[in-house]
Amino acid sequence: MLLLPATLTAHEARDTLRMLKQALQAEGSDTAVVVDAGPLQHFDSAALAVLLEIDRLAEAWGRRFAIRSVPAKLAALAKLYGVDVLLLQAGNGDAASAPPGADQRKPAT
Length: 109
Hints:
The chain is built from four helices and five strands, in the order E-E-H-E-E-H-E-H-H. Helix 1 (about 10-25) runs parallel beside helix 2. By secondary structure, it is an alpha/beta fold. The protein is globular, with a radius of gyration of 12 Å. It starts with a strand and ends in a 22-residue tail after the last helix.
């Protein structure tokens, strides 16, 4: 499971993405890519860009993508930018910890 930092803004996005890519490559290629967004406290739209890039990489490598513990403000930001459909659809990650209306995308195994 990939863990997002407490702060993920445009300032941290490049380093965060690099670290997440390294962790993703270290994981087994037959596992789903699960990102835990629970630690996120301070973020901007760069957090969405990082998540979209990790989703893109997972898809390119034939792996499922899921986000767990989506903060309500992140779900609202995704909806504002119109990427909630891409990132937060039904069956993704830990629906019990997601805010209402923050359905998730693909099931993790």
